[in-house]
Write a structure and sequence with these properties.
95 residues, alpha/beta, 4 helices, globular
């Protein structure tokens, strides 16, 4: 993404890049700088980091929450039973 997207965006300014996948906190800044839409948000820590970048740079992004609908321990995402609490927390604290 970092090596290819910059040139593509220069050539095709109307392109929108969606980040889909697991998000490591150390990669949040790069994802924010290069992507227009972020999928797979599943932790408040990640929301906090994106929120700070939005505030600092005066830019807002669109985010999609990753839900964990199964009982598989190796899967990530917000547990379905905790989704309402997660969403409320995000809306209340990270507009």
């Amino acid at each position: 993404m970092e090596s290819k997207w910059i040139d593509l965006k220069k050539e095709y300014s109307n392109l929108t890049l969606h980040f889909i996948g697991g998000i490591q906190s150390r990669k949040v800044k790069s994802i924010f700088e290069h992507c227009d839409v972020v999928h797979s948000v599943d932790r408040i820590k990640i929301i906090e980091l994106f929120s700070k970048l939005e505030e600092q740079q005066g830019i807002s992004r669109d985010y999609f929450m990753q839900l964990h609908t199964g009982n598989e321990t190796q899967k990530s995402g917000v547990i379905l039973d905790e989704a309402d609490k997660f969403i409320s927390n995000c809306i209340r604290n990270y507009k």
